[in-house]
Design brief:
With 417 residues, the chain is of the alpha/beta class. It has helices at 3-8, 33-47, 59-67, 73-76, 130-140, 159-165, 186-196, 200-205, 221-227, 284-298, 312-320, 336-348, 359-365, 380-393, 399-412, and strands spanning 22-27, 51-56, 84-86, 91-93, 99-104, 118-122, 148-153, 170-175, 238-246, 260-267, 272-277, 302-306, 326-330, 352-354, 368-369, 372-373. A hairpin with a 5-residue loop joins strand 4 and strand 5 (99-104).
Length: 417
């Protein structure tokens, strides 16, 4: 244990005693997870471990947070056993022969083959290819007298994480953002933490609670998981591609809602696929360019934009951006939940797939309930996706038919409009 760490370490940051395989450290933002992970790896090296996997949500996180960050591995290296980092090789080496290799969860196949006796996995809940990366890592954790791994993450109600927490060889510690208050800027608590304290978002991101499904949610995590297309499966050819836009009137970095921009396509197999999320918080000219870029990249044949907020301004922004395809303005004549219910039914029927994991979008979907939207702020991404999927699957349905669909969905769920 490094000299400064010995005086400041909290009980939940100490490695658990006993015989375990996985230490899961659930912490709020700024709770000290990274420092605990780095100190644990340093201690493992000094104990004699020789092959370590450092796995971040992406390559930048692995390098700039887990290794080079203020609380990363290089910051805790011992003077008597100093680590040498070679970024181009993704390697950290120690004088005693220990070697750590950096991996990105965005490239799960890189974990196929290498063997380890130690692994540190940071922000598991952010991993894009969570199941594939985790499975490949487990198959490589097979050398040494007692292979062990540590997971440091702000929690989300993900099946892989929940299953891991239930294993008999896992141990769990928790800490909140408040537990590390002495080491964080006062302004962080005054202006950031205070904004989310007491909210559902805050319970997850500050208090490190795993929040299960919302009662009456139109989308569940299981539905989203079923919709995700396996990375080993080739996407079918699209016959139509639409970009859905949910404008907010934001002027850029002014703290207002983002402009939802989501790409969806209808394939030759009859299913729809959410293909990309280009949501941003930019000036009108900026988000107009984003829409044009999304259209060009995916060769979209239509942009569907809500006209309730901004009206003619929204259309003029899209025209000025020269989006290069047809623009269809739609009017939200009934509420968000009524629009969302038929789309959630398509998910239940297995008629919508996701080309990749879109975590922010998924969180918004899962906050839609029959009684309203319970998420933080506006469901900008979800609204944009719903407009795009509606155009692809339900464009011929008039308002009377739409409300009938919503009533049928509610009846199927045991609720009446």
């Amino acid at each position: 244990m490094s000299s400064t760490w010995a005086f400041h370490v909290r009980d939940e940051q100490r490695p658990p005693k006993g015989d375990w395989t996985t230490w899961i450290y659930l912490g709020g933002r700024g709770a000290g997870k990274t420092r605990a992970g780095a100190e644990w790896v340093r201690a493992r090296v000094e104990e004699g471990c020789r092959r370590i996997a450092i796995v971040g949500a992406n390559a930048n996180d692995a390098r700039y947070v887990m290794v080079e960050g203020e609380s990363g591995l290089l910051s805790v290296t011992s003077p008597w056993l100093r680590a040498k980092y070679e970024p181009s090789k993704r390697l950290i080496t120690w004088p005693n022969g220990a070697i750590a290799t950096l991996f990105s969860a965005e490239e799960p196949d890189m974990l196929r083959g290498p063997q380890h006796d130690t692994a540190w996995c940071d922000e598991l809940a952010k991993w894009t290819h969570l199941e594939a990366a985790w499975d490949n890592l487990q198959l490589g954790l097979r050398i040494g007298q007692r292979p062990q791994q540590m997971v440091t993450t702000t929690p989300r109600a993900l099946p892989v994480l929940k299953s891991l927490m239930q294993r008999s060889d896992s141990v769990i510690t928790r800490s909140t953002s408040y537990d590390n208050r002495d080491n964080l800027a006062p302004a962080f608590f005054a202006h950031v933490i205070s904004r989310y304290d007491g909210t559902r978002f805050g319970r997850q991101e500050i208090d490190a609670e795993i929040l299960d499904e919302i009662q009456g949610a139109l989308w569940t995590r299981a539905m989203i998981d079923e919709a995700l297309v396996s990375r080993n499966v080739e996407m079918p050819k699209m016959v139509r591609v639409v970009v859905g836009v949910d404008p907010s009137g934001t002027r850029g970095q002014d703290g207002r809602d983002s402009v939802g921009i989501v790409v969806a396509g209808k394939a030759i197999d009859g299913r729809c696929y959410v293909m990309d999320d280009w949501t941003c918080s930019l000036s009108p000219a900026g988000w107009g360019r984003r829409v044009a870029e999304a259209v060009a990249q995916h060769q979209a044949d239509c942009v569907v934009a809500e006209e309730n907020f901004g009206g003619a301004m929204v259309e003029s922004v899209l025209l000025a951006a020269q989006v290069g395809t047809r623009i269809k303005m739609v009017h939200a004549s009934h509420g968000k939940i009524a629009r969302a219910e038929p789309i959630s039914a398509l998910y239940e029927q297995g008629r919508v797939g996701h080309a990749s994991a879109f975590m922010a979008l998924e969180d918004q979907f899962c906050a839609f309930t029959v009684d309203g939207y319970l998420g933080k702020g506006s469901p900008d991404r979800a609204d944009a996706a719903i407009w795009a999927l509606t155009e692809l699957m339900l464009s011929g349905v008039n308002e009377e038919g739409w409300l009938k669909l919503a009533a049928e969905v509610n009846a199927a769920k045991g609720k009446l409009n």
